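Handover notes (outgoing to incoming on-call)

Open items:
1. Orotidine-5'-phosphate decarboxylase: sequence verified, structure written out, both below. Nothing else pending on this one.
2. Nothing else urgent.
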Amino acid sequence: MTTQQLIDEIHRKKSFLCIGLDVDINKIPKRLLLEEDPIFTFNKAIIDATHHLCVAYKPNTAFYEAYGIKGWQSLEKTINYINHKYPEIYTIADAKRGDIGNTSTMYAKAFFEDLSFDSVTVAPYMGKDSVEPFLAFEDKHTILLALTSNQGAFDFQTQKIDSEEVYKTVLKTSKTWKNAHNLMYVVGATKAKYFKEIRQIIPDNFLLVPGVGAQGGNLEEVCKYGMNDSIGLLINSSRGIIYASNEDDFAEAAAKNAQQLQAQMQTILE
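Orotidine-5'-phosphate decarboxylase C-alpha cells:
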C-alpha cells in the first residue's frame, strides 16, 4: 500500500486508528479455547467488528511466536484474512527486527513477501546496513523505533551525546539512508511534549503512536503537536480495544471502544 492510499483511506473513514492485535489466550473468552484456532477466531471476530472504524491493524509478533508453529500459523491466517477480505486496511508487523544486511533481507522477505504485510517495525541500533534492506521494498514501509512509550526509553533514547538526544540523531541520520521516503517512525503517545521538535526534523513522515488508552497517552495532545498536512499519524490502541470484554460480547465491546476513538478522530479531522 502506498502512502497516498493510506492517506485516502484516513479521509474516507475519518479515522487514523490502528488496532493492535496482541492476543494473549489467557485474556480471551474461555469458550474460544474450544476452537481449533482460538487466536485466529478471536482476531477474525475483532476484525469483522472494527474494520470500518480503523485504517490499520498491528499484530505484535511476540504474541504469536510465543505459541510456536501454531501461533505463527494463526498470524499467517490473520494477515491473509485481512488482505483478502479488507484489502483497504494497512497492516503492520510489529516485529522490531534489525540485524546485519543479509539477515535483515531475510526478515524483510518474511514479512513483505511471504506474509504480505505493508510495513514492519525495525530497531535502528545497528545502523544503516541493518535498515536499508527493508527500505528496498517498493510500496512497503519500514517503521523505525524513534522515541518509544515505555519508561525505559529514558535509559538511552533521550540521553545526550555531544549535546543532542540519541533519538534526534536517529531521526536525522535515518533521513540520509537510501529510500528514506519509505520510513515511518514509532513515537510514543506518552512522550507528547516531544512531538513538536520531532516534527521539525521529520515534518512529512507518518508516525505510529502507541500508548493512547491503557498507557495514558492523550489523543488531543498528540494531534496538536504531531499532526501534519497529510494527517501523518497512526494512533494505536491494543488492550483498550481488544480486551474491552472477556465475555461473549467481546467483539461488540471492542467495536464500541474503537467507535469512541474514531469519533474523537473525526472531530479532530473536521
